[in-house]
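Subject: Predicted fold for chorismate mutase, 288 residues

User T.R. writes:
Posting the sequence so we have a shared reference for the thread.
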Amino acid sequence: MNQPPPTISLSDLRAEIDRIDEAMHRLLMERSEIIERLVKVKRTGGAEGGSAFRPAREADMMRRLVQRHGGLLPLDTVESIWRVIIATFTYVQAPYQVHADISGGEPVMRDSARFHFGFTVPFAPHMGAEAAIAAVAASTGDLGLIAAAPAAAGAPWWRALEAPDAPKIIARLPFVERADHPAGLPVFVVAHPIRDAAVTDVCVHSLHVSGWSARAARAIPSFAEAVVAADAEAGPAGRESAALLVSLPKGRTVAEVMAALAEADAVVTASVGVGSHAAVFRLDQTGA
Ligand SMILES: O=C(O)C(=O)C[C@]1(C(=O)O)C=C[C@@H](O)C=C1
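User M.O. replies:
I've generated the structure tokens; pasting them so everyone works from the same file.
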């Protein structure tokens, strides 16, 4: 015999929602207490001053979050909630601003900054990557956001990262890329290097190339992601120069890129490391 379905009223269900909301809020308050203790442990570990941002840890947390997610709540929402939680807990440890290069379009960059860092962290727009990098350089623990556009990029802004004491690329956002990401603009995060916290899955290099040509562009190996800009510095007479920002996955070297370019009569005259970041994690590739 079929049992009649148990009756549950709207107010019972709302009481459940209230119980869950209160539990989530209390857990967030408990999280703040852990952060207070974590700040002290980080200091004794020698990480005093500068930014509290730990890109490797965040990349790992965001990957696990999206992998375990299921149910009605859209992944975009869950990701943005955790981005705000983590970015704000970073901020309460050591206040910082996000200096964003809006020269490629303000709305898309602002969306990216707000998605990844929320509204408590101040957003400082700059017209050009160099200005954003200069603001980061002048700060103790601020972050810069610059579009990691793979297409032609105007001026080679990454040369401002070359000096040994200049800021460096420390992360690439979104931590989890996917085709329909609501803040899907790939951006580099630039900061003063964080002691003992660099993640080197992908290493980023500034290359100075003489003898640049369409053939040389085609010769760049497919494992390398490259942004190319015209090089204003005069190269040897009659040879075109280019500035490249090349991202290499673990196990790949600048020497391999140099050898491939040499096949196309292009010579790398200088190569400078300008940072590194966690491996790009693409959700659609995992079938998740
Ligand atoms: O794990 C840390 O080092 C923290 O500071 C905690 C925390 C977090 O809120 O979970 C905040 C900032 C870091 O970028 C990474 C994670």
